[in-house]
UniProtKB/TrEMBL annotation:
It holds the Pfam family TetR_N. InterPro entries: Homeodomain-like_sf, HTH-type_TetR-like_transc_reg, HTH_TetR, MT1864/Rv1816-like_C, Tet_transcr_reg_TetR-rel_C_sf. It comes from Streptomyces melanosporofaciens. GO terms for molecular function: DNA-binding transcription factor activity; transcription cis-regulatory region binding. This is DNA-binding transcriptional regulator, AcrR family.
Amino acid sequence: MPRAGLDPTAVVAAGAALADEVGLAQLTMGLLAERVGVRTPSLYKHVGGQEDLNRRIAALALSEAADAVGGAVQGYAGRDALAAAARAFRAFVLEHPGRYAATVGLEPSGPDDPLALASRRLLDAFTAVLRGYDIAEPDVDHALRMLRSFCHGFATLQAAGGFQWSTDIDESFEWLIAFTDRGLRAM
């Protein structure tokens, strides 16, 4: 009998929180079972195993990132939308490094896969940013990849402690936003 209050949503939420605390690579079914107060085999009533848990955490993270970015860009266009999206994405990754790490390198199993749906929502939020620029339709995918590289790269490097020199990290981030804006306007 499953523990009262424990369901797939609660298990995934607990797994995501634990991944943020200990890192995705350290997240195990045993550690999660301990966290939610059950024996490890009991988790398999809610998720199919470690791979399934990681995929569900990834879908959750992409959905949460989409909400953060989409909400941040509401009412903005051009550089203001770019800055709002980049800041929201960076804040999400810094606040949730473990769950965000789950999103890297996973392929959706099909168009109805929750991973694909959440990914599409995040791409839609970044596509909204690009509407404020004169980007030709054939270049939109390239621009989206550039935005993802900029946002993902900076945020994951920062989350991993990759900026050890003395220049202010926030100042560097704002410099990169301005640089990206100039590049998008030049298109």
